[in-house]
Amino acid sequence: MRTALSLALALVCGCGRNQSADDRGKSPVVGVSLLNMANEFIVTVHDAMSERAAETGVRLIVNDAQRSPERQVQQVENFIARRVDAIILNPCEMEASSPAVRKAVAAGIPVINVNSETAAAPAAFVGSRDEESAELAMEHIARRLEGSGGVLMMEGYMGQAAQLKRSAGARAVLAKYPGLKLLAAQSAEWDRAKAVTLMENWLQSYGSACRAVFAQNDEMAMGAMLAIERAGRKGDIMVVGVDAIRDALKAVRDGRMEATVFQDGRAQGRGAIEAALRLIRGETCEPQTIIPFKLVTRDNAEAFQ
Amino acid sequence: MRYRFNFETFKTFARVWRGQMGIVAALFVTCAALTLLLPHFIGVANLTNVVRQVSINGILAVGVTLVLLTGGVDLSLGSVVALAGVTAAHLAHPGDYPAAVPVLAGVAAGAACGAVNGLLVALCRVPPFIATLGMMTAARGLALALSGGRPVSNMSEGLTALAGDVGFVPAPAMILAAVAALAWWSLRNLRQGRYIYAVGGNEQAARAAGIPVRGVKALAYTMCGALAGLAGVVLAARITTGQPNAGAGYELDAIAAAVIGGTSLAGGVGSVGGTILGVLLLGVIGNGLDLLNVSSYYQQIVKGVIIVGAVWFDRRKRV
């Protein structure tokens, strides 16, 4: 309902072609196209954006691309047709979402990419460096194993930017520790059920050699943890994930999972609105705002709720 | 009477065995090859793993076999799995209800989806592909709405026990065995079971013979939905959460298993025994590829080739 209302408002406001928000004396309108509102993390980013927008008097038009880059390009075309003051893009895909950025830039509307990147350059990027999450996780494993032991890596959906970058980050750390041996790396497609199955199979092949599992997201880490617990191997294999979802934070607090890595979705969402405001007002804006990841272990888990 | 029943049973086994020679051989060769490559493949621990891992796809595949036999198809299975899992997880917080309540609620949610599919296909004459495609989207949306897009966790041990072991045997495998035995027996011995084959074999002839075609179809879809609900509850127990995004693409694995096991997409031909063999073949291959540490890219290629290859081999043999 609120979306429908803001859509209608945007249509009315958008009629004054080539007028900036200040000329009209009305609050600026920002079009937002999100990767997927069925994703817990994206919902967090969205909630932080709406909160900051309400505080600063920005009107948001929020569209859900439901993982489709093609739908995302259409949504941005609609934003351009309505002459919004800025566009916040949460790209579905690095290459396929790029036409959206190019079209908006050609129409003279500033684009802010949030959370992930596109090949085409936007006016500003607010997000985190995905490699860093895997680096933090793998460094922690190296520390806990004192630099030696067998490690398994569960990868995300093959070919997605997050999978490629998290794999690169993890392998860069592994290269520094010759005593850490990567026994196997396989995809469980970000999925908890697939991760349970993969871990059950891995326990057959690498059960004796394996000391730690690095899962590229917490859903898979939860799955690995369940399989390890059911096999009665909880004490000797540690599990580290990424994302700090609620289930994982609880598991870390309870000592079932070794660690996870927190990606600050709230800071990303609020940062995107800040960047949009600066660009609309014609102020200078950092081309890249990098929000750091944070390692979450049992010692500091209480702080992330 | 008793003797006759046993004799009939024996004859059926013999017939199933003859009809399934191709897939039995494929299963045997795959297992032998994996045993040569990995001695621990054939170990009790790993075989227990395989039967546990195939259980969910097995329950779905038995259900979809019923629908395929009528000449229909059900694309909504994966979404119904998610909906049933979320429904069960909502009712399964510790101290809420005894475990039977979330289990029955999950199965009922699945049966309700199946009944809607059945009514759309049988009464409204919507093509099964379209009716169940609609349900696929709607059930997914309902699962997301019910859970607010987040996993429903904090599950009681009563429900997670559904994915545990009873002695050495995984509970999900026992559930699959019970479901398969019941479906096999019903298809052979109940009037409705024979009607399912008749409707899929030749719908007009079935109608002329006075078989209540609409009722039979509605029943098949409802049973298929109920089994998808059961699979969803078992999956939720296995991952100790109700996941609104769970089950994506499960319908295709289930249909693939049924077709590999000799079930015809045109209806009227197929058996529960064949479907179970198809489920086992897919499960053994998935397990073996993980044990061999085959790259995720190549695993997908191998699975694709095997699905098409098995069906091609089967058709060639029949023609």
Structural class of chain A: alpha/beta
Which of globular, elongated, flat, extended, rod-shaped describes the shape of chain A? elongated
User: Fraction of residues of chain A in helices?
Assistant: 40-55%
Class per helix and strand makeup of chain B: mainly alpha
Poorly predicted spans of chain B: none
CATH third-level topology of chain B: ABC transporter involved in vitamin B12 uptake, BtuC
Biggest sheet layout of chain A: 6 strands, parallel
Major sheet: arrangement of strands of chain B? 1-2
Number of E strands of chain A = 12
Number of domains of chain A: 2
Oligomer: heterodimer
Report on this structure:
The complex is a heterodimer of chains A (305) and B (319). By secondary structure, chain A is an alpha/beta fold. Chain A folds into two domains: 2-127 and 265-291, Response regulator (Rossmann fold, 3-Layer(aba) Sandwich), CATH 3.40.50; 130-262, Rossmann fold (3-Layer(aba) Sandwich). Chain A has helices at residues 2-13, 21-24, 40-56, 69-81, 98-106, 130-144, 161-176, 192-206, 218-230, 246-253, 265-280; strands at 29-34, 59-64, 86-89, 111-115, 124-127, 149-155, 180-187, 210-215, 238-240, 260-262, 288-290, 294-296. Chain A has a six-stranded parallel β-sheet, with helices on both faces. Chain A has a four-stranded parallel β-sheet with strand order 7-6-8-9, sandwiched between helices. A two-stranded antiparallel sheet of chain A has the order 10-12. Chain A starts with a helix and ends in a 9-residue tail after the last strand. In chain A, 53% of the residues are buried. With 319 residues, chain B is an all-alpha fold. Chain B has a single domain (19-318), classed as ABC transporter involved in vitamin B12 uptake, BtuC, CATH 1.10.3470. Chain B contains 14 helices and two strands, in the order H-H-H-H-H-H-H-E-E-H-H-H-H-H-H-H. Chain B has helices spanning 2-19, 21-37, 44-69, 77-90, 100-122, 128-147, 157-160, 171-189, 191-201, 203-208, 213-239, 250-260, 272-291, 296-318, and strands at residues 165-166, 169-170. Chain B has a two-stranded antiparallel sheet with strand order 1-2. Chain B is globular and about 55 Å long. Chain B starts with a helix and ends with a helix. The model of chain B has no long low-confidence stretch (mean pLDDT 91). The chains are: A alpha/beta (305), B mainly alpha (319). Chains A and B meet through strand 7, helix 8, helix 9 and helix 10 of A and helix 3, helix 11 and helix 13 of B.
